[in-house]
Amino acid sequence: MISEVLDTYFPQLAKMPALKEEIVGISSVVNFDAGTVILKEGSYIKVIPLLISGLAKVFKVEPVNGNEVLLYYIKPGESCVMSILTLMKDDKSQVKAVIEKDAQVLVIPAAKAMAIAKKYPRWNEYVYRLFDAKFDELLNVIEILTFSNKDKRLLEYLKKEATLKGTSILKTTHQQIAYDLGSSREVISRLLKKLEHNKSIKLGLGFIELLS
Fold it and tell me: How far, in Å, CA of 46 to CA of 55, rounded?
């Protein structure tokens, strides 16, 4: 099964037979329910997750008030680049990762991942490409947080959620959106009402429908 998973979701890693064989021998497939915290801020990296299905989010927790700001998503075929970089530095994690949608994850023990990185350049190529993609996402987050008005920030967030989940109807709450954007429920509710007034969205009980 793991061999097929690599072929389908991580072809870059599967192209090198020796690397593929080693990953098959040291990894396992684990199912996680939505809401599971797979990486805690302040903890050492124990495993490197490679997402097979579902969706995960990576947050930065503000030290003063404890607010969480969404940094990037982990999609099928990807891993948590912050976990890999933190492991390489032998440091504690500065971010938090949570399963957003029920997920199946290929898990590689941290020590084994380090050995692979030293032995196989193709693994590092995968990490570099992943870092490049996530760096672009982080720049987008910084641009929205720093230069965009709150209306645009919220609408961009909703559109990205809809794209990742493949639906124009998001089952979420004002409080959950506030967590993701490091805001308050009251502010988010006010902005959502404004977006609804502008006919960008339609609000319902427990869901938000994107209209544009």
Answer: 20
Cα dist. 155→49, 69, 135, 211, 212 in Å?
30, 16, 21, 11, 10
- Tell me how far apart the alpha carbons of residues 95 and 86 are, in angstroms, rounded to a whole number: 10
Per-residue confidence at 60, pLDDT binned at 50, 70, 90? confident
pLDDT at 171 over 70: yes
128 token code pair:
């570099």
User: Where does the pLDDT of residue 145 fall: very low under 50, low under 70, confident under 90, or very high at 90 and above?
Assistant: low
* Pair 45, 78 in one domain: yes
Q: Of the candidates 97, 119, 146, which is a domain's last residue?
A: 146
Pair 56, 107 in one domain: yes
Do 30 and 91 belong to one domain? yes
Query: Does position 150 have pLDDT exceeding 90, yes or no?
Result: no
Query: How many C-alpha atoms does 185 have within 13 Å on its Cβ side?
Result: 5
